[in-house]
Structure formats: structure tokens, C-alpha cells
Design a protein that fits this description.
mainly alpha
Length: 96
């Protein structure tokens, strides 16, 4: 059964103002989530790059890929791994 709800113009405007405020809050939360830096473990980084962990170790040792240490754990920033992939892609294009 349908009901008809009658609201005044001021109540209607107030409801929409609250709705738009909530939409703004959600957009800000989404933006903040998108700005968060993603970190990978050694295994995850190797899988993301589609290389072995040994190759990843070589790349970090010779400075091709930067990493961070949190306590004793080595972590890789996704942005750094993406930079490495872009650099490799550019080198391959030069040879073609």
C-alpha cells in the first residue's frame, strides 16, 4: 500500500541539503581512500611485477626498486613498483 507524504517547502529543502551534505562527505571519504599508499610484502611485490622473489631481490640490491623497512619487515610501495614497470616499458619501446 502506498502512502503519500506531504512536506513543506522548507522541510523539502532541508532534506535535500542534508542529502547533498552526506554525498559530499562520501566523496571526501572516497578521495581519502584513493590517496592512501598501498604497500606490498616481498612476495606480493614479486607477484605484482610477475617476477621471481630472487629477481626482486636483485632489483632492490642494485637500486632499481626502492623499498622501506618497517621494523624488520621489507615493504614496497605500489607507486614505486608502478614506476619500475613504466621504466621497463620505456626501455622495451626504445628497442622496438
Amino acid at each position: 500500500m502506498s502512502e503519500i507524504i506531504v512536506v513543506s517547502k522548507d522541510e523539502f529543502i532541508s532534506l535535500f541539503d542534508r542529502l547533498f551534505d552526506r554525498i559530499d562527505q562520501l566523496e571526501n571519504q572516497i578521495h581519502n581512500i584513493n590517496q592512501m599508499e598501498i604497500h606490498f610484502s616481498r612476495r606480493q611485490a614479486a607477484n605484482y611485477l610477475n617476477i621471481s622473489q630472487r629477481t626482486l631481490d636483485s632489483c632492490t640490491k642494485n637500486g632499481e626498486i626502492k623499498y622501506s623497512k618497517i621494523k624488520s619487515k621489507v615493504v614496497f610501495r605500489k607507486s614505486e613498483l608502478d614506476r619500475y614497470l613504466t621504466k621497463k616499458e620505456t626501455r622495451i619501446r626504445k628497442f622496438l
